[in-house]
């Protein structure tokens, strides 16, 4: 008997040893992907059926890598954000429409994309409407990386979906929907971003000095390290940023980064955040995992003066991510030492240390300036930065965030060069506008605290929201119902995701008197201060009559901008609502077609401008720019299908202008841009509210001085 038991034990040990050897032979990254895949309960239908024909591969045209690398060197010298991918617009190719197959009661749509030059892919789906029963997947050829299923709850109110990265040279998009629900499905693959950089292979030539955060140099910075994420934006650019605390300590997911990373009100929805992307050992293999990922954010504030941007994530990072909300220091003092935590070149998280001296300067200046908006790190003592580090934070010896990286010339190959960080003291309230300062968002309690400690995540309340009716009509009251709520909870409703609290009721009603396609945002605060952030897609149906241009004509307040080469005209060939829109007139290279209006926004609390845009231009070059008082607010380029946008405004007189601006060569697409469904202004020729003397003087300042001043600082 004992001999039999011994034989069984020997066999068991042999089996376990065999399994151990197999697992040990797998690369750690591949093992991580296998684990990620095994977590998925639901799999794409094509994985489980053998009745599907082989899917044809759509090979993308070759790109000029030599030219891209040359451009990227220039971009780095100009401190532009790190580019890793270029956009391709498949709607220009009939071959990229994908294929439908039906297996039993399930309809399966697939599109297979490949490129021998691709290191990664990511995709943009527009006009996306998923039935409750539909599931969306993205995966590579080997099925080692499977993203999804994504459902109706994952689609933003803008009806756009930006996928995380698929690290492969071949990738597939798949949608599964019951045949009976297929008529409710709508989508368009509007953009494929071909990733031509391979950060997994440590492609930077000067990466040898970067210090992994798991090394001993990171031991004093474990909390700030957990607050840092790598993110992609517009599917093409990569930067770093920080989750930051606010004086309510309620875990609102504010994320601070740099404005020059292409962060705008329209691009915030495209942000994909990767948490805990770091090596498992100091100076070990590049084996960081990209599995801790979340999508989407709402723009809150930005300023070129100190180069910051603040967004609010669509959801609080899940508890398993174990993130930290960083504390901050907004004092005007100079720190005695600093640490920077960042993703150089998109690589795993790194840390750099410097023990001074430091100085206050203007951007990229070596001269001391007590009023300088930037902190200059003269040279790093340990580690360095690189493209991709932009937007990352810098912490003082107390572990408090004091600034964000705008750029510099430091690198592993140039250790004596400097970097410049926009200072938190200037981010705070150097600009009086809520949309250009962090004070309005990080100090909601108006404590005027100079410093704030960080906090860890906590257990948020678990509630859901029901919206009635499901199809909201313009000027019709919508009702919002809390499910699983408690009397002790506090509710903060934001019906158009502009950051303003519209209601604190447990069962509010709201009437959309304007077209809106975006997110409803609800913050539910428990007694312990923990907050749950919920977003819900809202789409307001247009009326039968034309909203804009009203009665098929523009009022006299609309005019061609005085410095433009040409204006715009009413178009009936493409429109968002009704049957008309406004389209830019044809222009040549290095010219602009611009139209503007002046309006007095006199509502006491709810002033805004809302409009739809469409562009068909040379990507990254010829742009539709939207300005308020000569300040660039948002920008679009490339092939952008109709997209509805909403911008809160402060009371008073404003100049609004839409300008199509071409660079000095080449054209693409229709070489035109459109706007439609303009709301928030009075369409009649009489204009908005009364214009007072101060407003007229302010208008003169805007037009001839080029910037808005304080009331006690007239032109």
TrEMBL record:
Membrane-spanning parts: 687-706
UniProt-recorded Gene Ontology molecular function terms: serine-type endopeptidase activity
Pfam families the record matches: Trypsin_2 (PF13365)
Chain ranges of the PKD domain: 461-540
GO biological process: proteolysis
Keywords: Hydrolase, Membrane, Protease, Transmembrane, Transmembrane helix
PANTHER family tied to this protein: LYSYL ENDOPEPTIDASE
Name of the molecule in the record: Trypsin-like serine protease
Species of provenance: Aliikangiella coralliicola
UniProt lineage: Bacteria, Pseudomonadati, Pseudomonadota, Gammaproteobacteria, Oceanospirillales
